């Protein structure tokens, strides 16, 4: 007889997590009885349900384990919304919008994760197709529109949003083809099923128009960015249970916007425009015109968020906080695996203390974790 298929949820993963939970939270009374109950539930049903305390702690551990994240000092403060009873796209969309309101908090950004129903043996969970709950569209347009050139076509907006924009338009999205147009949420309940489209209510998309403290012309560039980076295309995996619909956010570090989203050649690609307005000599790389434009763009991002009363961190402060986190974890006898190439900021790396050292090695099998979501 062939061996029976392995259970849907790996009992070893479940065991590791329940042990870790009780090890780090001795007040919970020891793993014994809970471990037996969990293994029995997996035996009977193929999977198991986390208690609310396990879900909350598991989500915080997934943040603490995120090797690419510089912002982990505050992992204990994560607000975990237990929405596991929700499986319908309408309900998921409504709670994603509520997530944005809670996380945006009038500008005082709070780290939040909203956990919807997990994949179950009999039923995969619904998926949010967007990369983030708020992201800008990228419109491919013909003709002489002022925009970036992608594959010989003009692109208006954020190239990183182009695929989802095409999908939303197929689903009937009527858009203005603006440069900073918030994409609707697309939620798909089953593989192959037509996704449902939801437009953001106005009070969910806090945005900041960008100004420069010393250059009045900067405002005329018409640049802006949203306040809450909420990743919605990763699976939260805790103790062998997969939550593919678990959007989470922190607050921005300025360089993510100023040195990547608005600067990268395959994103908004603004350095040439900024350099020209600054009157820089762009005839040679050696004048460092890109570097100078980059710094002014980053000054504008930090200044504008600050003036608008929206939480944002600069890379110097966030680097110091990260090393404080590493030291704090070491005192507790725990490693802090970290990916140097993601932790070091994309400007002025050597000016920040995180540049000048190495970190504990990254183990891709470490759990709980936010992992790339597999296709259906
Ligand atoms: N880098 C991404 C962006 O610019 C966001 C990633 C998460 N960032 C964060 N600060 N939590 O949209």
Report on the architecture of this protein.
- There is one protein chain.
- The protein has 376 residues and is an alpha+beta fold.
- It has a domain at 1-48.
- The chain is built from ten helices and 17 strands.
- The chain has a four-stranded mixed beta sheet, sandwiched between helices. Strands 3-7-8 form a three-stranded antiparallel beta sheet, covered by helices on one side.
- Strand 7 and strand 8 form a beta hairpin.
- Helix 1 (11-24) runs antiparallel to helix 2, helix 6 (254-261) crosses helix 8 (289-308) and helix 7 (271-278) crosses helix 8.
- The protein is globular and about 75 Å long.
- 39% of the residues are buried.
- The model has no long low-confidence stretch (mean pLDDT 96).
- Bound molecules: arginine.
- Arginine (ARG) is lined by residues 229, 231, 250-253, 256, 261.
SSE string, helices as H and strands as E: HHHEHEEEEEHEEEEEEEEEHHHEHHE
Spatial separation of the terminal alpha carbons: 30 Å
Q: Which hetero compounds are present in the coordinates?
A: arginine
Q: What topology, given as strand order, has the largest sheet?
A: 1-2-14-11
Helix content: 25-40%
Total number of beta strands: 17
Q: So what's the oligomer here?
A: single chain
Report the uncertain regions: none
The total of helices stands at 10
| Radius of gyration, CA atoms, in whole angstroms | 22 Å
Shape: globular
């Amino acid at each position: 007889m062939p061996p029976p298929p392995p259970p849907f949820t790996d009992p070893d993963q479940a065991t590791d997590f329940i042990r870790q939970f009780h090890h780090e939270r001795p007040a919970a009374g020891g793993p014994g009885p809970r471990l037996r109950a969990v293994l029995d539930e997996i035996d009977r049903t193929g999977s198991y349900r986390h208690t609310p305390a396990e879900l909350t702690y598991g989500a915080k551990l997934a943040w603490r384990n995120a090797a690419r994240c510089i912002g982990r000092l505050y992992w204990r403060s994560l607000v975990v919304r237990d929405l596991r009873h929700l499986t319908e796209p309408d309900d998921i969309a409504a709670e994603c919008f509520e997530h944005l309101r809670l996380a945006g908090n009038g500008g005082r950004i709070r780290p939040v994760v909203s956990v919807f129903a997990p994949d179950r043996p009999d039923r995969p969970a619904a998926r949010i197709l967007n990369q983030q709950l708020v992201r800008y569209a990228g419109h491919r347009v013909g003709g002489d529109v002022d925009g970036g050139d992608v594959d010989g076509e003009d692109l208006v907006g954020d190239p990183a949003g182009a695929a989802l924009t095409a999908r939303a338009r197929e689903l009937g999205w009527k858009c203005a083809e603006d440069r900073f147009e918030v994409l609707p949420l697309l939620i798909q309940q089953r593989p192959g099923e037509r996704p449902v489209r939801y437009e953001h209510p106005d009070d969910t998309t806090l945005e900041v128009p960008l100004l420069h403290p010393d250059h009045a012309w900067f405002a005329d560039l018409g640049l802006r960015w949203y306040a809450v980076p909420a990743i919605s295309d990763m699976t939260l995996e805790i103790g062998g249970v997969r939550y593919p619909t678990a959007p989470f956010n922190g607050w921005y570090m300025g360089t993510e916007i100023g040195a990547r989203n608005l600067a990268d050649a395959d994103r908004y690609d603004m350095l040439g425009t900024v350099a020209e307005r600054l009157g820089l000599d762009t005839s040679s790389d050696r004048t460092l015109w890109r570097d100078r434009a980059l710094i002014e763009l980053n000054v504008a991002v930090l200044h504008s968020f600050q003036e608008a009363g929206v939480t944002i961190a600069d890379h110097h402060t966030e680097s110091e906080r990260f090393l404080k986190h590493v030291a704090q974890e070491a005192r507790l006898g725990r490693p802090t695996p970290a990916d140097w190439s993601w932790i070091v900021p994309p400007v002025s790396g050597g000016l920040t203390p995180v540049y000048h050292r190495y970190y504990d090695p990254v183990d891709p099998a470490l759990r709980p974790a936010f992992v790339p979501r597999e296709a259906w």
